[in-house]
UniProtKB/TrEMBL annotation:
GO terms for MF: 4 iron, 4 sulfur cluster binding; heme binding; metal ion binding; oxidoreductase activity
Keyword flag Iron-sulfur: yes
Name under which the protein is recorded: Uncharacterized protein
Pfam families registered for this protein in UniProt: Fer2_BFD (PF04324), NIR_SIR (PF01077), NIR_SIR_ferr (PF03460)
Nitrite/sulphite reductase 4Fe-4S domain boundaries: 187-324
CDD domains in the record: NirB_Fer2_BFD-like_2
Source species, domain of life: Eukaryota
Names of required cofactors: FAD; siroheme; [4Fe-4S] cluster
Species of the source: Acyrthosiphon pisum
Amino acid sequence: MAGVRTIEEILDRDPDRFEITIIELLEYTLGDDFVAAAPTGICACTNLTRDQIVTQIRAKGLKTSKEVRHVLDFKDKGGCPKCRPAINYYLNMVYPHDHEDEKASRFANERYHANIQKDGTFSVIPQMRGGVTDADQLIRLGEVAKKYHIPLVKITGAQRIGLYGVKKEELPQIWKDLDMRSASAYGKKTRSVKSCVGKEFCRFGTQFTTKLGIRLEKTFEYIDTPHKFKMGVSGCPRSCVESGVKDFGVIGVENGFQIYIGGNGGTDVVAGELLTTVETEDEVVKLCGAYMQFYRETGIYAERTAPWLKRLGFDQVKSVVLDPEKQDELYARIMDAKRAYDTEPWHEVVLNKEKRHIFEVEKV
C-alpha cells in the first residue's frame, strides 16, 4: 500500500486488508492469549456461514433442505424461519433444474403470490412492463374492482396499478378475471423495471428507454435473487425514474447508456456507483444478466445489492462483470436458470386445482 500514511487512507483504499492487518497484529502481540471471533452462522441452527453451506451443497451434491440440515448437522433438523427460506434459495440457485422448489419454506407473500397487508388482506399488482398499459387492461381492472368491492385502487411506486384489500380466498378468481400476469411485487426476485417515456416522446430523451425497460423486464422476470432486485431505465441524466438509486440503473446519454449498480432507495438510501458506459441495448441486457447472476451466486439471502457491493468491494465486482469471458459465462448461467422460471405464477394457480387449496377458507 505504497503512499498510504494514515488510518483514514487505509480504510478508504482497502478496509478488508485493514481488518486482516489488525488481526495479524493482535495474534503477534497476544500470542496464545489471542481469541479470534467465532464465525457467525446464518442462524441459530448452525455456525456455518453462507459460503460454507453453498460450498458443501455443491461438494456433497445435497439436493433438499432436509439433506442440508441433516448432513451439515444443524442443531434444529427442522430448520427455523431464518434458515429455511435461505437454504431453499441456495438450492434453487445451485440446482435451477434439479431442485424442486420447497414452497413451504418460502415466506407467506411468496406462497400466496401477493403481498399480505396489515389487516390480513392482500394486494394484487398485475404486470405492466415498463409501466405501459392499454384501454383493455384498464377496463378489466375497473370491472374487477367493482365486482369484488376493492376498497383501494392505487398507482404504485413501481409504475403499476395495485388493488388493495383483497381477501385471500378471492385471489385466484380475481387473477382469472383480470387475465394479466403477476408483477412479482411480493418476492425476493427481479421486480418491475421503471422506465420513462424516453426519446420517443420526451424532448430531453436521448434513448428509447421504454422499449429497453420492457426488454429487461421480459428477459429477467421471476428470477429469484437474494433480495428484491429493482431496475430503472432513464432516457437522460435528469433520471425521472431515479435510476441512480436502483440495484441496476440505466441512464441514457448521447453516446449510449451509463450503468449504475448497488443503489438503494429504501430506509438506507445509497447512491449507485457508475460501473461503465456501453453503446447498445444488447450490451445493457448482457451486462445486467452477468451482474445479476454474480449477485445471485455470491449474495447472502436477504442481502440487498448495496451491502453486497460494499462487502465484496466495487472493484472486485467490476473486474468480474466487465471481464468478457466471465461476463459470457455469467450470462449463460442466468439464461439457463431463467428456463426454471418460465411459468407465470398466477395462471399456474388458476389452472391447477391442487395449487388453489391453500387459498380456501375453512368454514365452521
